[in-house]
């Protein structure tokens, strides 16, 4: 089946209303309550989270942003980020996989403008497929060499988050020979395709259930039917990267919120009080109030910024190919600001909650440390100092950083 060009219809438009947000937030809360039950076990084992992925399917979350005309829910990005944030309070690894799925599958729109993508979208909706990626730009480029009417893919990609757990892997490489010689081709294929080898080498401090190990591609057949589109560097197509950074900001915010929720429960359950406090319980101690009040206030500020940018993302991508370079630059810089404050606040909150919860909360069986370990690990994805540079250079001189898979 060939992916013919079709009349262009907008795949993203409008913004979420209160009913949509409330409906899917409630679904996410139900899923999160179930994810919480096995979160510590998944963290300890570091195994591929197949059962958690099935739970996402059972709650209909895979098809959330697929347009209704293809059988999807047709929800907006503001809703998608809200869902990820709710799940992230329970298990940041699973939230990351789902958030990546939304962005990876939406590459059908970002890179496939004007192409008939109905068969891809319909399969996502009908089968509750989840998409992952193998796009880490710091690895050597993959080899995509012409072979007959198609291509052969070879190479290794590290940090292929979710690839071992999901259904479809999206990747990219510059074609050598064939019909698309010299073009950067975006393609997607099933995880079970012959020649896909997962290295099972993810062994890190946090995000332990994110299945972020390496994947090796060995003589994988790539046909015309696997091609999603081409990376032509347009302002609209490259909006996927600010979307990824916005996802990160929401995940870090979720970690801060999750840590505060658990800290509240632990503090209320503490017996007695510090002998100099003059109160009966730690929950009555004004110094505990001060500590938690400071952390809550900072988290609320990040939440307000994230909420505004989640909606703004819908507003910008809704312009489709009319998006300008300046539109993209402004959005990129605003999201970079969120990345800065969400990283710093999440790291502070997830480490300082212990000042309220006390030494007893450091037991491994409690798992309060998971929030800090996840943020500390994932926030190293790309240096936050360079996000500060992005914001400062644009503020002073209107300078925009080169477009990449990090900016």
Automatic annotation (TrEMBL):
Q: From the UniProt record, list the reaction(s) this protein catalyses.
A: dibenzothiophene + 2 FMNH2 + 2 O2 = dibenzothiophene 5,5-dioxide + 2 FMN + 2 H2O + 2 H(+); dibenzothiophene + FMNH2 + O2 = dibenzothiophene 5-oxide + FMN + H2O + H(+); dibenzothiophene 5-oxide + FMNH2 + O2 = dibenzothiophene 5,5-dioxide + FMN + H2O + H(+)
Describe the location of the Acyl-CoA dehydrogenase/oxidase N-terminal domain by residue ranges. Answer: 30-128
Pathway stated in the Swiss-Prot or TrEMBL entry: Sulfur metabolism; dibenzothiophene degradation
**Primary location class:** cytoplasm
- What are the residue boundaries of the Acyl-CoA dehydrogenase C-terminal domain, all occurrences included? 248-382
User: What EC number(s) are associated with this protein in UniProt?
Assistant: 1.14.14.21
* GO terms (BP aspect): L-leucine catabolic process
Q: Which Pfam families match?
A: Acyl-CoA_dh_2, Acyl-CoA_dh_M, Acyl-CoA_dh_N
Q: What Gene Ontology cellular-component terms does the record carry?
A: cytoplasm
Protein localization: Cytoplasm
All residue ranges annotated as the Acyl-CoA oxidase/dehydrogenase middle domain in the record: 145-219
Stored InterPro entries: Acyl-CoA_DH_C, Acyl-CoA_Oxase/DH_mid-dom, Acyl-CoA_Oxase/DH_mid-dom_sf, AcylCo_DH-like_C, AcylCoA_DH/ox_N, AcylCoA_DH/ox_N_sf, AcylCoA_DH/oxidase_NM_dom_sf
Is DNA-binding among this UniProt entry's keywords? no
Alphabetically, the GO molecular function entries are: 3-methylbutanoyl-CoA dehydrogenase activity; flavin adenine dinucleotide binding; monooxygenase activity
Q: Which UniProt keywords apply?
A: Flavoprotein, FMN, Monooxygenase, Nucleotide-binding, Oxidoreductase
* Membership in a protein family: Belongs to the DszC flavin monooxygenase family.
Q: What is this protein called?
A: Dibenzothiophene monooxygenase
Native species? Glutamicibacter uratoxydans
């Amino acid at each position: 089946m060939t992916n013919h060009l079709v009349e262009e219809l907008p795949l993203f438009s409008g913004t979420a209303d209160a009913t949509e947000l409330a409906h899917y937030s409630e679904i996410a809360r139900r899923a999160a309550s179930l994810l919480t039950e096995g979160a510590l076990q998944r963290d300890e084992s570091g195994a591929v989270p197949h059962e958690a992925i099935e739970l996402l399917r059972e709650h209909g979350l895979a098809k959330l942003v697929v347009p209704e005309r293809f059988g999807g829910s047709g929800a907006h990005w503001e809703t998608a980020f809200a869902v990820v944030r709710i799940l992230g309070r329970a298990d940041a690894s699973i939230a990351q996989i789902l958030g990546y799925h939304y962005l990876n599958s939406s590459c059908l729109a970002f890179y496939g403008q004007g192409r008939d993508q109905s068969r891809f979208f319909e399969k996502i909706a009908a089968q509750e497929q989840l998409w992952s990626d193998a796009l880490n730009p710091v690895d050597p480029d993959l080899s995509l060499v012409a072979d007959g009417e198609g291509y052969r893919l070879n190479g290794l990609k590290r940090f292929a988050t979710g690839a071992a757990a999901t259904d479809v892997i999206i990747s990219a490489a510059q074609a050598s020979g064939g019909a698309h010689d010299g073009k950067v081709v975006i393609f997607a294929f099933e995880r079970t395709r012959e020649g896909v080898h997962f290295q099972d080498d993810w062994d890190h401090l946090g995000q332990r259930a994110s299945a972020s190990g390496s994947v090796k591609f060995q003589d994988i057949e790539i046909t015309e039917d696997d091609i999603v589109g081409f990376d032509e560097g347009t302002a609209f197509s490259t909006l996927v990267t600010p979307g990824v950074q916005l996802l990160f900001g929401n995940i870090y915010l979720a970690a801060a919120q999750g840590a505060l929720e658990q800290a509240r429960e632990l503090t209320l359950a503490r017996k007695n009080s510090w002998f100099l406090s003059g109160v009966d319980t730690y929950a009555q101690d004004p110094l505990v109030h001060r500590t938690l009040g400071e952390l809550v206030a900072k988290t609320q500020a990040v939440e307000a910024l994230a909420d505004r940018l989640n909606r703004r993302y819908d507003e910008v991508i809704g312009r489709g190919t009319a998006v300008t370079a300046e539109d993209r630059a402004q959005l990129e810089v605003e999201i970079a600001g969120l990345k800065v404050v969400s990283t710093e606040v999440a790291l502070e909150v997830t480490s300082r909650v212990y000042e309220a919860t006390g030494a007893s909360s450091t037991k491994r069986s409690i798992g309060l440390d998971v929030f800090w370990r996840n943020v500390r690990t994932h926030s190293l994805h790309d240096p936050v100092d360079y996000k500060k540079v992005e914001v400062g250079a644009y503020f002073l001189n209107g300078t925009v950083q080169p477009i990449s898979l990090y900016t």
